[in-house]
């Protein structure tokens, strides 16, 4: 066994222990430990990714001393390592971009807590990505929920606590369903490891004995994870949670937490249930329909919103809808498009949140559109970054959003039944996206005579500006050199099966 | 189908409890009642697991008197899952209760809808 194969385990453990260490360190040191640890895990994931690309196949890593049907396992393939790397990059940039705001908005004694929660969140995300055991996945789903709840309420006002309560309620409903699904699947198959369950599921289908319970199980797990990742009718908690928490939290929640659950769902579809079994059940159509509805209603809500942060939050609902539409398409290309959109949305949405905070800061802290007039002239970097993010969300070529829309359209063409609704809704949703994002861009670039607010210069916000530039580069990178990334995703998905 | 329901009455009760807990968590306005619903829901899953894990006439999976036959023992994993699940649900309940205390101190009510309307009035 090569030493590199230990890296997934190292990443999870490093993240968890650095969280514990952060609690006793002084504030500044805790921040450094946090930043270094996220970067280190990113480097480890990158090394692992290149190792796996060269090796060309995934591997299973035994946790503890017991072999397959009894012990616990970690599994790493290209998709897992790539997602881990990407999560680390986004998390690092979000933390850097929101650092100043964190110091202003959060009580100083709670800063250490924040770093603990971020590390805990990262370790649970990594565990969700790497684990090969369903019950372990459930436990880390709950850890993820608790950490995310902490991230929402670390900035304490009435709104965030209420948002945290609503988030918890929805999440707990989702994890209750997921837990029941996992328990029923365990009863049906007698296994908790993903590969063993899949073999048993094949056996069940050949015998034709437990078809209805199997369908119920698939439904429970899909609906549970859909609730947790805020698919359309379950998004009530989302605007408050993303709109009022501190900006790093909003960026991390929107781009990573919900994506972790979607990644787990994709993993369950491929590795536990089996792609064909899932495709033949009607759950896939349900996900497709709710995805389409989310794309439209999320955008409509965003148009009505008069608060820039809440508008971006509602846009997330629409983007989650895109991802579920791709999953519901039932083709390999659709799944590739969904995975690409997970990356592209994560890169764009965190950029938008971080840029929006720069714009509201130079408008007297107000997030209403009327006060944002001309904000892009007062904070040039944030203005450019917000424009880039908006263009990417709308789907202008050169940026990442264009590639995901292109992939979705290609996937839609391959499925004759779902082609028409998918393409129509895609077009409508793009127009709606353009309406609210371009409205904002025009607003912030409308010159205002004799503004009462002061401008900021590069000197006052070096870290912030550098973060924005990194985000923009990431977006353009995803948009321009998308082919290698799409190839990697396809390879990764074929490793899943 | 009906006869199966009667044989597996334990599982049927567990499902019924799950639904009761789920609807309580979803629909109750009072936060404490919501948390009670959460606990009923989680306990229902553990009841389901315990019911599935026990086999009539078999004993604890500890080798006694050198009997090593599989037929003599029950499967210990469901009990392990229940224990893990209880730990998770206790921590989640504690978190929910602490959030409820925070909200109650601030707004002197446990009604989530009323808190929402007051927040809108505050216009934060």
Number-wise, the strands of chain B total 0
Helix % of chain A is over 70%
Q: Overall mean pLDDT score of chain A?
A: 90
Helix/strand/pairing class of chain B, anyone?
mainly alpha
Uncertain segments of chain B are none
- Taking the alpha carbons of the first and last residues of chain A, their distance comes to 23 Å
The biggest beta sheet of chain B reads: none
- The geometry of chain A reads as globular
Tally of DSSP β-strands of chain A: 2
Radius of gyration of chain B: 21 Å
The biggest sheet of chain A amounts to:
2 strands, antiparallel
Structural class of chain A: mainly alpha
Description:
The complex is a heterodimer of chains A (497) and B (124). Chain A is mostly helical and 497 residues long. In chain A, 77% of the residues lie in helices and 2% in strands. The mean pLDDT of chain A is 90. Helix content of chain B is 73%, strand content 0%. Chain B is elongated, with a radius of gyration of 21 Å. Chain B has five helices and no strands.
Describe the SSE topology.
The complex is a heterodimer of chains A (497) and B (124).
Chain A: H1 7-22, H2 27-55, E1 59-63, E2 72-76, H3 78-97, H4 99-105, H5 111-130, H6 134-153, H7 158-189, H8 194-207, H9 211-228, H10 238-244, H11 247-273, H12 275-280, H13 283-304, H14 308-328, H15 332-361, H16 375-378, H17 380-394, H18 400-414, H19 419-444, H20 462-480, H21 482-496
Helix pairs in contact in A: 1-2, 1-5, 2-3, 2-5, 3-5, 3-11, 3-15, 3-20, 5-6, 5-11, 6-7, 6-11, 7-8, 7-9, 7-10, 8-11, 9-11, 10-11, 10-14, 11-15, 13-14, 13-19, 14-15, 14-19, 15-17, 15-18, 15-20, 15-21, 17-19, 17-20, 18-19, 18-20
Chain B: H1 2-7, H2 9-27, H3 31-53, H4 77-107, H5 112-122
